[in-house]
Design brief:
Elements: E1 2-4, E2 10-15, E3 32-41, E4 58-60, E5 63-65, E6 67-72, E7 77-83, H1 93-107, E8 113-117, E9 123-129, H2 132-140, H3 152-164, E10 170-178, H4 188-198, E11 201-207, H5 217-233, E12 237-240, H6 246-258, E13 261-266
Parallel strand pairs: 7-8, 7-10, 10-11, 11-12
Antiparallel strand pairs: 1-2, 2-3, 3-13, 4-5, 6-13, 8-9
Helix pairs in contact: 1-2, 1-6, 3-4, 4-5
């Protein structure tokens, strides 16, 4: 959910995490739940830090919940980077590589990071690791594949399923893409359900292009996921007009991710 608080120019985006999804038990649930929250200035995108219990309002099922504690998030975060390495990105790929390297350096040990290409089919270019040298080498090996199209929606589904099995209690999926032709045939509802199941915040930095205005079904499903996915997962979407802006926007995103708050709130025991 998203909360806008008067007195702040900050947007509070609370993303659910897989570890806290209901398991289907019939009786009482735990009294405490956890949200990982991004807080940043809407004008400058600078992180807002040092917030406390009184700075947050949590509503669940239409009811206000008691906020018990707020602390800086310190647990490892799994970050999956989905990068456009299709033919459509050929003219921008040098800027994309430079932006990925800068993003990885700025994240600096936040947790295991992976790099996935979306050309023709989702392909792991670097599996989850905290080794900066390996990650930078993986980013430097991102090249546009001739004759390829994007399978971004397939990638979101597959990566979400993988994140659901990981042990980290928070995760982010970062999409770095041009607004090109989509080859996936998945319906947007299927993709959003998989995203919710994986528990990751979806963040997208999108280079807008004329191809993004296509009216076919794959384009509409892709546009809907990139619009709604960040909103429902507690992430962000940023549109840019030139590929040189990828680096700056990813730097801003890295700072936001590194300054998350861990919000614990009380939830009355109920029957399900």
């Amino acid at each position: 959910s998203r909360q806008t608080m008067s007195g702040f120019l900050a947007r509070f985006a609370a993303g659910s995490i897989a570890a806290l999804l209901f398991s289907g038990a019939l009786l009482a649930q735990a009294n405490e739940r956890v949200l990982y929250v991004n807080a940043f200035d809407e004008q400058t995108r600078a992180p807002v830090t040092g917030l406390g219990v009184r700075d947050f309002v949590v509503r669940e099922d239409g009811l206000a919940r008691e906020v018990l504690s707020v602390t800086p998030a310190a647990s490892p975060m799994a970050v999956a980077i989905l990068v456009d390495n299709t033919q459509a990105a050929s003219n921008n790929i040098a800027d994309v590589r430079r932006a990925l390297q800068s993003f990885i350096k700025t994240l600096g040990g936040i947790g295991p990071v992976s790099i996935i290409g979306v050309a023709d089919r989702p392909t792991i270019l670097r599996d989850y690791t905290t080794n900066q040298t390996q990650l930078l080498d993986g980013a430097n090996r991102v090249f546009a594949m001739p004759g390829s199209g994007a399978t971004l929606l397939d990638a979101i589904v597959e990566i979400s399923r993988g994140l659901q099995k990981r042990e980290e209690d928070r995760a982010a999926m970062v999409i770095v893409t041009t607004e090109n032709t989509e080859f996936s045939t998945r319906y947007y509802k299927e993709v959003l359900e998989a995203l919710a199941g994986g528990g990751a915040q979806l963040h997208a930095v999108v280079l807008t292009t004329p191809a993004g205005s296509a009216l076919n079904d794959p384009a509409r499903n892709r546009a809907h996921v990139l619009d709604v996915g960040p909103k429902v997962s507690g992430g962000t979407r940023t549109d840019i007009l030139a590929s040189q802006a990828f680096e700056g926007k990813l730097q801003e995103l890295a700072a936001i991710l590194k300054s998350q708050h861990r919000v614990v709130y009380g939830r009355p025991q109920t029957l399900i």
